[in-house]
């Protein structure tokens, strides 16, 4: 079975988050817990279910990934873009204006 | 422009208060996502790939400078310092936090704005010609009618749960700049022999999975019957439109399946029943609304401006900008200015907060404080003295907003695509950026002439690709982005759906493919005066197909 991680969007601000081994939602895909078999994916999904957990996220689901050189890379382009941010080069889309309130936004890839 | 009356202000404020409570309950865990989703969508809040997205209505694309400054301030305070103007003449913020949205809506309500009916199966924001009230070729200003339709359709209880969303567009000139033939209802203002104002009515246009240009429903609808007739159409649609399959639920499918004659008969029957009832528009009511859109007090000026001519002679860049971005005005000595939001290599439709403020300042100084948004994702200063064009241009240069490309190859419509949109199959913005870099040099654009390139990241067609002279549709092929081309589409009074060229092109190939199409046109056109669209209509698909795929 391809390796999988659990992802969702955080309820308060919609940011992309990944479920870690400590059952914490983290913004960095590289800290996600990688599940290699069906049972652990199901266990992780069960833990992440907002109906039973205290974790404030929207609609968690599993994503196929490849682990290469210690980095976790989602297989689909959509999920890579979710993990790394918009791919738009230059422009302010990836910048963090000093005045912006969203101090928790990670820098975007170019 | 229209000002909220007491009723408007109350209902917008009540909605904000209600939504604040709903957000609080959602955050407290009292509402599940399933329960909350329809509530947030009713307030324009989507959840996209990276964040929530807030879509704010700009009725018929008209804003005052105060409102634009408020949008700029919201962008700075709650977003990343920019906003995205859409093909629906709306504004989207791509990064607001849910917890901040009630505050954002409060700030919007203070300047008579909201996000109601920017989502859901209801009557959406009514769109109109961006040169309304200004264009030299206009029969009448469409905005009073758009405003009447807005008031009628806002929170209309009978039409809050239609089979699918419903879009109305209105044009005041015979030359259609509002793409009325690809809307559910398209209204064309006309005069009858007696000189009375009325509407030619189109129905069932739409893009998406199954694109259709509209059917012609009626030659002349007297203005006093506008609401009764629209209500009759909506009733017929509400009753017979399909609810079993969301891909077959738009009114275009009803038109396609039931046929024009059947639908017309039903509409006319319902119309006859209600036309003399409460929806009849007394002339006084139309005049009362029209007064809000009374033209500003123009100076009496000569048609030509010596100052403009002198500046053009001295500055070739200004001259090029005037050629591309300045539009004739009905009042001598005035012009309309299009502020291009399509810098070469930039993101179509995006404006930073600083740019919005710069445009608001220029509007205050030179354009009666009024701004328009076009469905082509540009901004417009509708009434500018020709004597002031150079000052406006200089202000736009300072704000990085003086790209001289309106209607040219780099004036590309692009939807957010896979960089933001959760429904996307492929990216749109990077493709637009690369095409504009390839074709956007001033000489190259001038050589190509009028050309509309439109890009959608999925079949929902928010980027209007079907009606692009060159349309680009992003598709997913086994996990890879591919781009299908359509040629010969048009959104104006000669509306047509583009023809698919054949197999799609990879990300690496697509820009070359566009250039091949452009070069084929240049090689085959009869003269530089024959536009791409004219040449395509004369030549057909074949020569372009051969150039793209080789002679089969
Ligand atoms: S066309 Fe598709 S990808 Fe583009 S904005 Fe619309 S839904 Fe999203």
Automatic annotation (TrEMBL), chain B:
Keywords: 4Fe-4S, Heme, Iron, Iron-sulfur, Metal-binding, Oxidoreductase
GO molecular function: 4 iron, 4 sulfur cluster binding; heme binding; metal ion binding; oxidoreductase activity
Source domain of life: Bacteria
Listed Gene3D superfamilies: Sulfite Reductase Hemoprotein, domain 1, Sulfite Reductase Hemoprotein,Domain 2
Domain Nitrite/Sulfite reductase ferredoxin-like: start-end pairs: 52-111, 327-398
Domain Nitrite/sulphite reductase 4Fe-4S as annotated: residue spans: 119-273, 449-548
Protein name as catalogued: Sulfite reductase
